[in-house]
Amino acid sequence: MSKAAELAKAGETLTNQPSGRKNIVINGGMQISQRATSTTGVGNASGYFGPDRWKIHKDATTAGRLTMTQSTDAPAGFANSLKMDCTTADTSIAAGERLNLGCSIEGFDVQHIKKGTSAALPMTLTFYVKGDQAATYNVEVGDFDNNRCFYKRFAVTTDWVKITIAIPADTTGAFTNDSGESIALGFWLVAGSTYNGGTFVEDAWSAYAANVRSHSSNTQFFDSTDREFFITGIQLEVGSQATNFEHRSRGEELALCQRYYQRKSNGYLAGNGAGTNQIAFGVPLPVSLRATPSTPPNFSMHRSGNTAATVSINQVTFNSDADNALLQLRTSGLSATDEVAYNVHINGILELDADM
Amino acid sequence: MNIENAQWCPADTITGITDTLTATLDGIPLVIPKDPANRHYAAILEWAKIDGNTIEEAD
């Protein structure tokens, strides 16, 4: 490359470099794992089982099972990775089966990509992967608002490998500016013909079609109980140049994750009697939640002065401004119908789930 | 997401508003707010469109 070309490239990099936080992905280094650091028997349901923000998506019934772990096996410069270890094989993948590891990114956080306009910017996706043996999978970058997708296959070896993928600008379809899912980032590990029976398109945006979401020659992760898949250092950034991973402080990364999921344990909450069978109490939130949260109905909890009284959550409301979630407990035997203050002791874990 | 059942919670005794339901999703019981941005509520709305699936009235 000539000196002039080098300077032009450097100028392009500087021009495209965002002035704020560059990594669109939250918890790409897998350092936050609020729900669990290891979960066995994963594979019979979609959900969150390991590091925050990383969700297992499955369809159809599969015999395949895996253990998902926040691992300390990581490339130099990283403390953690997400490990998936096949514990029960499924060597006969039915048409409707799929298993992918995904992360949803909300519309508020991707407006700077200017997708769907003539000024749309390219993106670059980088990540580190490793396996127990050679394998080939594919990544999907989905535009959830406009049913458009970008796909790219990548190879896994027994050593940590850094994968860099250039994603061209897409002038079709703008991201909706709201708290809903705009980008669906997914790593496809298992796919039946419903998802890999079409003609796979790489390196270009295309209209969504279910049967092109994975490649028919990809490795099926559930083909052997030897199979392992490690991933970390996931970074999606604006621009055509891959830059070093944006390492954020633990506190900063935790706060970013808490917009989607928070948990409280072994604490006291102040409540207010409301009628003869309700206690309303506010749960202070360290970070505003993305949406009104779901929560388990019967965690171990009692009200002050009466440890025998059982309570269950009857109602969840939410101030979207939003430094409180208001939970309404339903109980019995309150002593008055007027407003009385109560202390509610959480013996177990109160989960607030506003993830996508 | 496997939804086994869904039922509205009793109305708030003060406001009279019903804006929460309980459901069992993938074997896990949850209290779910009536918020379309909540993924569990969105899934229940899709589930309720299928013939035979109904969100039960409150007890």
Give structural notes.
The complex is a heterodimer of chains A (356) and B (59). Chain A is globular and about 80 Å long. Chain A contains 3 helices and 21 strands. Chain A starts with a helix and ends with a strand. By secondary structure, chain A is mainly beta. Chain B has 59 residues and is an alpha+beta fold. In chain B, strands 1-2-3 form a 3-stranded antiparallel sheet, covered by helices on one side. Chains A and B meet through strand 18 of A and strand 3 and helix 1 of B.
Summarize the structure.
The complex is a heterodimer of chains A (356) and B (59). Helix content of chain A is 8%, strand content 40%.
Helix content of chain A: under 10%
Shape assignment of chain B: globular
Helix proportion of chain B: 10-25%
Number of strands of chain B: 3
Structural class of chain A: mainly beta
Which sheet architecture does the biggest sheet of chain A show? 7 strands, antiparallel
Main sheet: strand order of chain A: 2-3-6-11-8-9-12
Please state roughly what percent of the residues of chain B sit in beta strands, choosing from under 5%, 5-15%, 15-25%, 25-35%, 35-45% or over 45%: 25-35%
Class computed from helices, strands and strand pairing of chain B: alpha+beta
Total of helices of chain A = 3
Strand content of chain A: 35-45%
Which spans of chain A have pLDDT < 50 for at least 5 consecutive residues? none
Shape of chain A: globular
